[in-house]
């Protein structure tokens, strides 16, 4: 194919090598470990920016390595992958800073940061995979690298959650594996974007390809937390806040959602998927999950649990957008990959900050917290407005495109689902905002973590402010060239060119 | 046949370990170990040289004493044999290095265990001989050598659980050998030859051949602990000292599989029937599910690992139905066979490395804890991270997650399953993976959990941990040369031109 470039590989190595080096360090070498972490994170952002710039100039970046026999390891840069990779790398940088602050003085930090690095390696690997096999390899690698993070605290509850997490993800992985091998046998090694291969085979192998589609979809739906395969996500809330932030905003759930996007758009092709009625099945499940997740979120008093069920709901916007064909819905789906990421990570940072600073885990304890932590809660409020879909925050853009696209496609029921979901979003997020700003605190608590004039440690505060502002910026500057929306729009338009 | 290049290596590969084994008998204590480790290193080195020779020259032969067959014995080292010999050498050398440090460290608690080194070298000679044998009777002899030394190794500790397990092992081994020998006698009676090459040409389909194939297959299945003859394996493999468990699980059972593979693919093509294939596949499938489930239910580490072997060997049996297509299903070419045997070879290699590593790790844990009840593995990660990593990596390969050798095997197996149209085996592979994930992660879950007692782990020699880790890494590294390995194997008759036998057999067998 095109000329081989080591840049995509370098993007992966920028977090893989620091991870390995951290494992080799001693627990006490905190300074060196922090340096490696930040160096890797900054290098990754820089490399992706470099590649992105090159890609916009029209350069191609492909790395091919023949693993064995017909198994080819391929990394290839395309717009969709770059969007996801940028999201992962920027949020990784932010989360790394956050985690350094959050875990200060904690145990097993060497293990934590090493697997944290492996995790982001897997997630950028998923973003840059050029074919189904490579995607699958990183998809499984992600499962393995996140497990030690889920059980990090080592409590019985954490270990139990880790078990649930593994049963779901390994089960999903095996089903996906079956689908991937089957696809390989029927259609050969498929590179993302070669939708003509399936199009040529669909009439001859209708049954096989239908079964394979649903096998792969099921495998991906586990990580994308689509009902009834979402059970692991609320349980995994026992993990430390930076892990929840990373799992729920970027790595695991997005791997599933991104996989569904790839499967429909770049493997089977939107035309075939629509023609074979695959999409209507996906739409039904996604719509149900949106409502179900929101309803469950309403009844959670545990802050992180409420956020988790909200994630279950929000993620299915992506699947729903994929399931309704049309440029606008596709734009909505792809842009929501990014928007949901930055908004939800803000919320988890908030939950982490409150828990670390005041020890509050329940929503009922949050009365008046906004006065004590104005910046954190300010960021949370922005994100919450975004989730509800209020302009001009990022979430509004996603919902606007999804709704508009649904109307255009004549699927009015989708608009109804979006409206109900928005109402539910408001019903479970606004009370938190209201409590925080307008309720009187029940008692005066003095935090240990207040450092000087800041409301909490600087390393915990900066990330949440940054992602809060990003959520706002992604909405306000949506029309500018280079915004997530404009990129998503370009990707979607290319999809329907054929 | 005699136009093949003649080489001294096949004879040396059998002779050298026998020589060193005999030599070590003359020494006591440390002297025996020194001769033993030297013998191991020399045999391994020789095996690798021979391996390289075969990659360059192709199949080589050696005629013992210059007597031509059928009077003399001909040793043939083709690519398939050299892959198995190479595997035995690499895994064997790590186990030897481990044993070199393991036994002295164990002496304090268990007393000295004599005779490990001579028995292991005899076993090695038997394995090499088996891989090199070219006729049914020599195969029998080598099987016996392997069986006897393996049983003796299994009862090395002299403790009563080991002795009773060893007795069962011995009975199974003898029954297996007798069944095999009976089949061989039938073949000899009807054809007058034992030479594999000749047999593949003169064997005619019929009741005698079919019956002979049946008893031979049954005998070999007993030897490789195929379901429902797996009963002897878990107690025997789990009660032996760690290096012995590793040898038994990683290498010894593969010998019987090797013969089975050779006979089915190279010799008995004419008598293979679809039903026979399905039946042996069913046995494999049950072994996969049953073995994994049993492993999941165990509470002692070595029993988990031993039951896991039953399951992993089941995958090997599952390749046999795939080489015979269903009646009415025709294949234009032998394309579907390549993934099938690649799956077999990779399963053998991946299991050898991963399982050897696993048993060695179990030995380290027993050394550190004094027992192997898994609830004591709590906080293994904190205390012995190299061993924890080795168990993790070996486990990943056993589950079949990418990019391990086990993944390669499962990928190819599933590919073969789809290509041969026998999709009903796919759920078995899936369930097996899930169950194996169940027991592996049960261990890892404990390894990450916080410990209730303070420092229950006694220190162990670091080198032992490193050997186990290297073997675990080996189960990943074997994926890298896959391309050349498959090409190399394709150059042998069994997977190259010999495939025609299968194709013919597949058609003949469909009546």
Descriptive report:
The complex is a heterodimer of chains A (498) and B (511). Chain A is mainly α and 498 residues long. Chain A has helices spanning 7-24, 30-56, 79-102, 109-128, 132-150, 156-187, 195-201, 206-223, 232-235, 241-268, 270-275, 278-298, 303-323, 327-358, 369-372, 374-388, 394-409, 412-438, 458-476, 484-495; strands spanning 62-68, 71-76. In chain A, strands 1-2 form a two-stranded antiparallel sheet. With 511 residues, chain B is mostly helical. Chain B folds into two domains: 1-134; 135-508, no CATH class. Chain B contains 20 helices and two strands. Chain B has helices at 9-25, 29-57, 79-110, 116-132, 136-154, 160-191, 196-202, 207-223, 233-239, 242-267, 274-297, 301-317, 337-369, 380-383, 385-399, 405-419, 426-448, 462-477, 482-490, 499-508; strands at residues 60-63, 74-77. The longest helix of chain B has 33 residues, at 337-369. Chain A binds chain B through residues 66-69, 71, 108, 111, 136-137, 140-141, 144, 147-148, 151, 154-156, 159, 162-163, 166-167, 170-171, 173-175, 177-178, 181-182, 184-186, and chain B through 342, 379, 381-382, 396, 399, 401-403, 408, 410-411, 414-415, 418-419, 426, 429-430, 433-434, 437-438, 441, 444-445, 448-450, 479-483, 486.
> What is the C-alpha radius of gyration of chain A, as a whole number of Å?
21 Å
**How many individual helices of chain B?**
20
The computed structural class of chain B is: mainly alpha
Main interface by residue count: A-B, 35 and 35 residues
Write the layout of secondary structure elements.
The complex is a heterodimer of chains A (498) and B (511).
Chain A: H1 7-24, H2 30-56, E1 62-68, E2 71-76, H3 79-102, H4 109-128, H5 132-150, H6 156-187, H7 195-201, H8 206-223, H9 232-235, H10 241-268, H11 270-275, H12 278-298, H13 303-323, H14 327-358, H15 369-372, H16 374-388, H17 394-409, H18 412-438, H19 458-476, H20 484-495
Antiparallel strand pairs in A: 1-2
Helix pairs in contact in A: 1-2, 1-4, 2-3, 3-4, 3-10, 3-14, 3-19, 4-5, 4-10, 5-6, 5-10, 6-8, 7-10, 8-10, 10-13, 10-14, 12-13, 12-18, 13-14, 13-18, 14-16, 14-17, 14-19, 14-20, 16-18, 16-19, 17-18, 17-19
Chain B: H1 9-25, H2 29-57, E1 60-63, E2 74-77, H3 79-110, H4 116-132, H5 136-154, H6 160-191, H7 196-202, H8 207-223, H9 233-239, H10 242-267, H11 274-297, H12 301-317, H13 337-369, H14 380-383, H15 385-399, H16 405-419, H17 426-448, H18 462-477, H19 482-490, H20 499-508
Antiparallel strand pairs in B: 1-2
